[in-house]
Each structure stands twice: as structure tokens, then as C-alpha cells.
Design goal:
Length: 439
């Protein structure tokens, strides 16, 4: 059966500028516009997530899916998976995104055993490859789904059942091969069930050791395969488990250091995961960047009144401005990108809503990028921060930073001086208003 053409009536989404009233046009995302010497397209490196956009039927804990997806035949067959892949590329082509991301089990159905699952995956990968070549759309990253199937109820690499560890290893091996074959830019590990629900039945130390072993096996196999892209760990504190080991950027960095894996991993930071961890997105980005480990982002946002991972499309200009300030400060993405790990609301059930949602996310990030670049060009924010730390650029501050002073020298310095130089104001409200000038 040929691929259906469900988006035939939707035009290719074009940049029409801020004055346009066309809902199916970009008002701010102009892929060719140059900012700080690089095109918007290359700065933002947008990616569509296969799982939310092509698999999620908008079910929630209280009700079944509401999505109308005319191309779905209701089956989970390989033929359906192949047709869906063609539809996905039609969508991404019309939207004009350069990348996509998937879990192995999003693109192809799980079979009755590992061999059959691998065969199913190969049949769909053939189509993905053809469509990548036809459109020029590339794979930002792939990952293995180690959390849906009941075998992973106690975890994957951290399961109490050694066979489950072995199955997960085999599944990641295959996912890595597929990522490599499709020319993926990177590979993600999100430990959806790598954690616990109660410590009463959990040997935490043994589970963490197993996770470290698993990651070393993955690094070894990546080298054997010749896959050059980075590995990313995606932190999230809870959901589905009560506590996940990769709970936030700091916990991930500590894990990577403890198990001597820091050279082989970066982080993929997701907004709603940051907020679930009690942090801001910018905090998580700054922590990752400070360790030289900020790789990629999962772009979404939560809802202040709903405490769970609502995965909404990012439409908050303050958020995207803050994100882009940190991304620009670290010199921009290299292999990473802005992956919309976001889903339309259950009430936004029509196919055209998929376009509205992505256009909203892309325009909001484009504005964030422009605002962040303007704030940097203006220079007042950076100057303020530089000035705030100026006592470290001379005298005793410089001696401390250069390792030329210890407790004895500092005591002598203070005994002579008597007390400190007066503090200066932090000017938070002034700075918040300064940012508002650019939003
Ligand atoms: C779950 C989540 C995942 C990862 C990939 O909250 O974010 O979809 O991004 O496994
Ligand atoms: Co994610």
C-alpha cells in the first residue's frame, strides 16, 4: 500500500515575518537569518520527536486517546510502521526541520522475541534511510525504549533480574547499530526505570554499579562499531519511578565521574525534567555547561499548577531567552540540537495542531535566540557580571585565584586591613527589567 498524503492541503511552512497573520507560517523563525555569524537553522538545529508526534494518541491516566490520525489503521504492524515513517517525513518536510529523534520501539513494533523485534526494526530502518536520503532530514539521536515492556518493571541495567540486564544490553547494541547506520549525530540514554519505588527491596549500591558497568559496555561497543557521535544522559528525577538515579545534572555528573565515564558522555537537558527536579532549566544548563558536558536539549515546558511531566510545547519567551543565553555563552550546539520532546494537548486532537504546536515552539525559540543575541550585543548584562567579580581581577582576589595565598597570608592581609571593602548591590530587579527590554 502506498503512503497516504494526509498533509496535502497544508502548504510548506514559510517565514512570513512578524506582521503575518497566517497561522501556518513562521513569524520569527527565519532559517536563513544570520545571528552572531551563523544561520538560525544552524543555531537551533530543531528536531521532531517521533514518539509524541507520530505515536502518542493523546491518552492520559483518565482517558483513552483523542487524536485523529487518518493515516493510522489501528494496527501495530510492520507495514503500518513503514507507512507511518513516510507520513512522518512528509510532516517534517513541510515543517522544514533538519532533524528527528526516536526510540527503537516508536518506529517499529516489538516482536515476540528479540530476534523478531530486531527484524521489525530493520524493515522500518530501510524506509527511514530512504526518506532521509529523499529529504535530507537527519537523525539527531536515537535511543532504546527500556521502560514500556513489562520485562523492565524493576529497571533495565539496574534490574534485580540479570537476564533483564542482558536483554537491555542486546537491545542497546542493536539501537546503536541502527543509529550508526542512519548516520545519527548522537545517542541518548534516559533511564526511565533506572531507579526505585521503595528502598526496602533495593540494593542501591549494586544497582548503581550495574548501571556503571552497562555504560562501559556501551562505550566499548560504540568504539568497536566506529560510531563517532556522543552519548548523552538525560536527567529526570522521577516518573515513572519514585526516584531515578540520573535525577538531575549534578547527580549525572557525579555518576559519570564516579564510574570514570565523563570523557564519553554529555548531558541532554529537558526543561520539564529540570522543573520536576526543583530546578530551573537554566540552572541545569549552567551546571552541565560548567562541566563542559552540555550536549543537547529536549525543548518543552511544564505547567506551574500541574506537578507532573506535561511535556508542553515551549511557548514562554523568558524561558527560551534564558536557554539561548546559556547555549550562546557555551559557543552553540555542535552535535546537539533543540529536540521538541513535547506533545500537543489532549484537546488539540487534529493533525493540523501538530503544525501549530511546532510552529509555536520554533517561533518561540527563534525569538529567544534573537533576544539572547541582542542582550549579548548590548553588553550591559555581561558588563554587570564582570564588574560584580572585579575584586577577583586584582590584588588579593587575583592572588587567591592564582594559588598564591593560603590561610596564613589571608589572615595577615585581613589583620592589617581590619575589615572588608563594602559590598555592592546585586541589582536583581534592575537586571530583570533590563532583560524585559529585549523580550
Ligand atoms: C521521558 C523522556 C524521554 C527521553 C527519551 O520523560 O523525556 O522521552 O527523552 O527516552
Ligand atoms: Co526527553
Amino acid at each position: 500500500m502506498a503512503a497516504p498524503v494526509p498533509f496535502a492541503k497544508i502548504p510548506k511552512i514559510q517565514f512570513e515575518g512578524p506582521k503575518s497573520k497566517n497561522p501556518l507560517a513562521f513569524k520569527h523563525y527565519n532559517p536563513k537569518e544570520m545571528i552572531e555569524g551563523k544561520s538560525m537553522k544552524d543555531h537551533l538545529r530543531f528536531s521532531v520527536t517521533y514518539w509524541h508526534t507520530f505515536r502518542g494518541m493523546l491518552a492520559d491516566m483518565f482517558g483513552t486517546g483523542t487524536a485523529i490520525r487518518p493515516w493510522e489503521d489501528g494496527s501495530n504492524s510492520v507495514a503500518m510502521a513503514q507507512r507511518r515513517a513516510r507520513v512522518a517525513f512528509q510532516f517534517m518536510e513541510k515543517l522544514g526541520v533538519p532533524f528527528y529523534a526516536f526510540h527503537d520501539r516508536d518506529v517499529a513494533p516489538e516482536g515476540k522475541n528479540l530476534r523478531e523485534s530486531n527484524r521489525n526494526l530493520d524493515s522500518v530502518v530501510e524506509v527511514l534511510k530512504e526518506e532521509q536520503e529523499r529529504t535530507g532530514i537527519r537523525l539527531l539521536w536515537a535511543t532504546a525504549c527500556l521502560f514500556v515492556h513489562p520485562r523492565f518493571m524493576h529497571g533495565a541495567a539496574t534490574s534485580c533480574n540479570a537476564d533483564v540486564f542482558a536483554f537491555a544490553a542486546a537491545q542497546v547494541k542493536k539501537a546503536l547499530e541502527v543509529t550508526h547506520e542512519l548516520g545519527g549525530e548522537g545517542y541518548v540514554f534516559w533511564g526511565g526505570r533506572e531507579g526505585y519505588t521503595t528502598l526496602l527491596n533495593t540494593d542501591l549500591k549494586r544497582e548503581m554499579d550495574h548501571l556503571g558497568t552497562f555504560m562501559h559496555m556501551a562505550v566499548d561497543y560504540k568504539k568497536e562499531l566506529g560510531f563517532k557521535g556522543p552519548f548523552y544522559i538525560e536527567p529526570k528525577p522521577k516518573e515513572p519511578t519514585k526516584h531515578q538515579y540520573d535525577s538531575d545534572a549534578a547527580a549525572c555528573l557525579n555518576f559519570l565521574r564516579e564510574y570514570d565515564l565523563l570523557d564519553d558522555f554529555k548531558l541532554n537537558i529537558e526543561t520539564n525534567h529540570a522543573t520536576l527536579a526543583g530546578h530551573t532549566m537554566q540552572h541545569e544548563l549552567e551546571v552541565a555547561a560548567a562541566a563542559g558536558a552540555l550536549g543537547s536539549i529536549d525543548a518543552n515546558m511544564g505547567d506551574v499548577l500541574l506537578g507532573w511531566d506535561t511535556d508542553q510545547f515551549p511557548t514562554d519567551l523568558y524561558l527560551t531567552t534564558q536557554v539561548m543565553l546559556t547555549i550562546l555563552k557555551m559557543g552553540g550546539f555542535t552535535t546537539g540540537g533543540t529536540n521538541f520532546d513535547a506533545k500537543v494537548r489532549r484537546e488539540s486532537f487534529e493533525p493540523v495542531d501538530l503544525f501549530h504546536a511546532h510552529i509555536a515552539g520554533m517561533d518561540t525559540f527563534a525569538r529567544g535566540l534573537k533576544s539572547a543575541a541582542a542582550i549579548r550585543k548590548d553588553g550591559r548584562l555581561a558588563d554587570f557580571v564582570k564588574q560584580r567579580y572585579s575584586s577577583w581581577d586584582k590584588g588579593i582576589g587575583r592572588d587567591i585565584e592564582r594559588g598564591k595565598a593560603g590561610f596564613r597570608e589571608l589572615e595577615a592581609y585581613m589583620l592589617k586591613k581590619g575589615d572588608v571593602e563594602p559590598n555592592a548591590s546585586g541589582r536583581q530587579e534592575y537586571l530583570e527589567n533590563l532583560i524585559n527590554e529585549f523580550i
